[in-house]
From TrEMBL, chains A, B:
This is Carboxypeptidase Q. Pfam families: Peptidase_M28. Keywords: Carboxypeptidase, Endoplasmic reticulum, Glycoprotein, Golgi apparatus, Hydrolase, Lysosome, Metal-binding, Metalloprotease, Protease, Secreted, Signal, Zinc, Zymogen. Signal peptide: none annotated. GO terms for cellular component: extracellular region; lysosome. GO terms for biological process: proteolysis. Homodimer. The monomeric form is inactive while the homodimer is active. Residues 266-353 form the Peptidase M28 domain.
Amino acid sequence: MRAKALMTAAFLAVGVDSSEGAWAQDYVVAETPATLIKQVETLRTAGLHDRMGYEIIESLTTEIGPRLAGSAREAAAQDWAVAKLKALGFSNIQVEPFEMEGWARGIETAHVVGAAAQPLTITTLGGSVATPDGGITAEVARFDDLYQLEAAPDGSLDGKIVFIDLKMYKTQDGSSYGNTNYIRGNTPSVAARKGAVATLIRSVGTDSHRFPHTGGTRYADDVPAIPAAALSNPDADQLSRLLERGPVSIKLEMTPKSLGTVTSGNVIADIMGSEKPEEVVVIGGHLDSWDLGTGAIDDGAGIGITMAAAKRILDLGIAPRRTIRLILWGAEEVGLLGARAYAKAHADELANHVIAAESDFGAGRIWRFESRVGAEDLPLSGPFTGNCGLWALAWGRMKRAVAPM
Amino acid sequence: MRAKALMTAAFLAVGVDSSEGAWAQDYVVAETPATLIKQVETLRTAGLHDRMGYEIIESLTTEIGPRLAGSAREAAAQDWAVAKLKALGFSNIQVEPFEMEGWARGIETAHVVGAAAQPLTITTLGGSVATPDGGITAEVARFDDLYQLEAAPDGSLDGKIVFIDLKMYKTQDGSSYGNTNYIRGNTPSVAARKGAVATLIRSVGTDSHRFPHTGGTRYADDVPAIPAAALSNPDADQLSRLLERGPVSIKLEMTPKSLGTVTSGNVIADIMGSEKPEEVVVIGGHLDSWDLGTGAIDDGAGIGITMAAAKRILDLGIAPRRTIRLILWGAEEVGLLGARAYAKAHADELANHVIAAESDFGAGRIWRFESRVGAEDLPLSGPFTGNCGLWALAWGRMKRAVAPM
């Protein structure tokens, strides 16, 4: 993601060089301007050889720590971002606040009751309602996946705790996350429709330690909202083994709280365009994180990647043709609330947004590029790629982005 | 450890074959009796090709779960053990109870206070005292290891929270655990002597997840007992990074409780000897575990290994010459209390104990044998070893064990 975001930004930055004509209009040129290539190479080399991105991530995750959407620590992260951007030399910095419904984790315990009495490690899913006073004690009904649960007759799970035991397997492209995490948001309402009183899902992760993955859940309007938690992988294994022996009842106690209306915000820094300042190119990551970690990967990495890329462009000393807007989104994890607030606040200018990209897939060595470059245009990416096809992705996306202009 | 314990037991079992003279008296024979070798091979083959050991571990850790010394769940594990031994065909089964001081974990939280306010994940060390009402808020004093702390002048840490940031590195033979875990028991009293009010240690483990390792601590009589906890490795990293930036204060809240006198016990099963029934060979593992896991490795593995080995010997259908005593120790993790109680209760018979071994180093594939077999005796182990020197260890230890007789 680092390379992708950096290159996207770099591409737009070098658009300032219009010595051979406006780039957006002649993106199908057979030859890439030599000056442009040189500027891109300068950015790429700088990006690959400094530690600026890491230092930004390290600062955010160490000094702020967890920063749940709408919390005091997310607000502290906004202050951190403004100070960091100023220190890096940005001048057009704004915080755009917006309101949202706050939520905070409470106590969260699960205990098998009866002969095999023992604690199980759970984490409350973001946005979950609490258990009633005294907790919920009920028998567990296990399902291999959400589809199996959906096939259960309505009312067939009256008073039960539904357990979705779907395992996530490692895939290098991360696709298994998308193939698994649908159970997190969808299980509570499907289960409630069948009469269930609470839900447990197997932690959406491929780890084997006893620290379950959180993430948010959601509720449909037409069924009761029931408490929702995730079991760590070893605890899900344990519960499955117990269920092989016979019925299992669990006592759940979860005390998350709705906090009413709280404030989040997007932090925005512009590098003003020289030729078409009203046209905007957006890059960024999200400033909020879940509360159980420090959000180093999700999404400190995106913050570090895009803030460092913007800083490199700033240091190039050439105003870009269009305005490059770095947005450090607030409350992204809990439903893209920052993006929605931005779209609402900037409704009149949306047509002037040429492209927008969020870096939110972690960071690491490049192992594959996806590209939408057609076979006939592949030679165009050559000058940018060097030995590794580095530019194909940005080039392909840029073509699609500017084509409708 | 599986192989070691099994072989030790097997060795003693085949001692029944005295067709070529009492084995203990002629262990320096140049030739190993062929009948003995065959019986040993029968046991070894059986042990390597069934799943009995695993099934015992799976049953204990699933059906009982965590079983802290002196707790109701340790008592449940004793009941489990008696029922399992009966089901396996053992007839001489005893539970020998003993009294101990009980302890139970409570709430355990740590928060950095001030500008970098954030939670840190800790676990209270076993036996630790609680923090005073309202917790302890104090500045952290970091040390690379216990030796550096010992070098600090008395009184120089008045009111501070001592943090021992000693890292454990992976070593295949597990030696790094022994080289690191001395900080767990020793830090509180050394720190208290310097004036500290609480201690944190880096989790004694090589993992990188946010689930700290517990284990017990202890207190010297001549200094105040102060609360002691472990930080997970990522949290210790985080605290170190914060300390590089300047002073850090932490609020600690820990509410463990002393439970007064509670009961633990050893579960004992004898395979009576035919020729010297009063002479005892002890094998076993410990039934108690820490409360944060299910004790599958520490020490479900030892229970499974030794109970299965004893069962194999039982199934051989030949009464051993000496009595083989399987002891499933209680309250081992909190200071070998089961062993001490046994030694006291059996003081009169201790001289009749020929050898005793506890399997408590986990389980896994064999990668190395330690042996005390002298060069001149190495050929003796040959017949037992096949291709892998399997018997060297047991043979070497047996020689040392029987030599004083």
